[in-house]
Amino acid sequence: MQINNIITVLSSEEGIHFLKNNLKNNPNDLALKYSGKTKFDLKTALNLLSIYKKAKKKIPIVSDNFLAIDQRSYEQSTSQKVAQFKTKFIRGKNLLDLTAGIGIDSIYLSQNFEQIEAVEINQALHELASFNLKKIGITNIKRIHGDSFKILSGKFYDWVYIDPDRRINGKRAVDLNYLKPDILGNLALIKKSATKIYIKLSPLFDLSEIARSFKQFNAIYLIAEKNELKEVGIFIDYSTQSGINNSTIHLKDVSTNFYVKFPFDEYLIRKKYTYKTGCNKFLHTPSVLVAKSSCFYFFTKGRDVTKHLAFQIFFSENKNLPGFRTFEVIDKCALSLKQIKRILQLNNLAKVNIILKGLNEPPSKWHNKLGTKDGGDYFLFILKSDESETIICKRVI
């Protein structure tokens, strides 16, 4: 979509009327019905409708207010619930957003600041975001088109917020040295320009890499939505002398009440679990947040929990294990097609969810082998390792 076309459609009474009346309608049907009959650019309006349908869940402020957005900025945008969560700990007098993008983070953070300066080097994104601020009436965000690090010199801020581009030739980078703009190379400049920094990183970034790359950080935030990790965030407060060992890890799923905070030292603990070959009463799989943190011992200590030798699968007599999904163990056998069919038949199961570990095969292949269908409350864990086995469970939590 051309930027001018988007803004033109959204500035037209006829265009807004069309969008409001067709949010629930199929864009393909609308293309046939209205082709050649509108004063506005129909293709642009239909593309906006397609994005608004998806934005209803991810960033409803966009669809509710008919804001300007294109497909790429939608895909790269922060989820609204994630942006709202960050307002709980990012607050002050003034903030510089070095890589503002379409501006969802800035919009919500503006509630906690007198002034935000939001810098974006991409002209098209800058124009879309500027249009949106006028439309929803936010006056304490100043949009700036330009090079973010040139803005830094000569002014001091309470906070610097940065969400660097992680794409290199269309592929996501997992090395801090390849981010754009260069965070590690400009940390000294950022330190001279702000007291506090929040760096938003991809869910792919590993906590060990963060510990290697930063001499100081006060907190790491792992933020998920509906058990899907959305971002890894680093908070640095240069007004303190806090070392890494005094920092904290925060786990939050914005779609639930799940929130846990613990010392970074817990990440360094690597407990050796035993594995009982007997059939434990409950099987537990870690949430994406617990798995990403690798702090299994923090959640399992004092609960007499054992772990599979090869996989992040835990067993105990506890029905509830915070941070984990729990299943009741029903039956168990060797990893043998004949034996799996036998225990499925014994438990009268024709519908079962299949989870494969150690096998590079789709569940559909095993459904074909077993003559089963996907779904229901029962789960078949097929575990290929030195201790290969199959476990039938029923979902508890």
What report would you give on this structure?
This protein folds into 3 domains: about 70 residues; about 190 residues, Vaccinia Virus protein VP39 (Rossmann fold, 3-Layer(aba) Sandwich); about 110 residues. The model has no long low-confidence stretch (mean pLDDT about 90). The protein is of the alpha/beta class and about 400 residues long. α3 runs antiparallel to α4. The longest helix has 17 residues. About 35% of the residues lie in helices and about 25% in strands.
How would you concisely characterize the structure shown here?
Helices cover 33% and strands 25% of the residues. The chain has 397 residues and is α/β, with parallel strands linked by helices.
Record the SSE blueprint.
Elements (H helix, E strand, L loop, with lengths): L2 H8 L2 H9 L5 H8 L7 H17 L1 H5 L6 H6 L3 H7 L7 E4 L6 H6 L5 E6 L2 H14 L4 E5 L2 H5 L4 E6 L4 E2 L2 E2 L14 H7 E8 L5 H7 L5 E7 L2 E10 L10 E6 L5 E5 L1 H4 L13 E5 L1 H6 L2 H5 L5 E2 L6 E3 L7 E10 L3 H10 L6 E5 L5 H8 L7 E6 L5 E7 L2
Helix pairs in contact: 3-4
User: Overall mean pLDDT score?
Assistant: 91
What's the oligomerization state?
Answer: single chain
Spatial arrangement of strands, main beta sheet: 3-2-1-4-7-9-8-10-11
Count every helix, treating DSSP H or I runs of 4 or more residues as helices.
17
**Content-based structural category:** alpha/beta
Q: How many structural units, i.e. domains? A: 3
Regarding CATH, which class of the largest domain? Alpha Beta
The level of helicity is 25-40%
Beta content comes to: 15-25%
Spans with pLDDT under 50 lasting ≥5 residues?
none
Radius of gyration: 25 Å
**Total number of beta strands:** 18
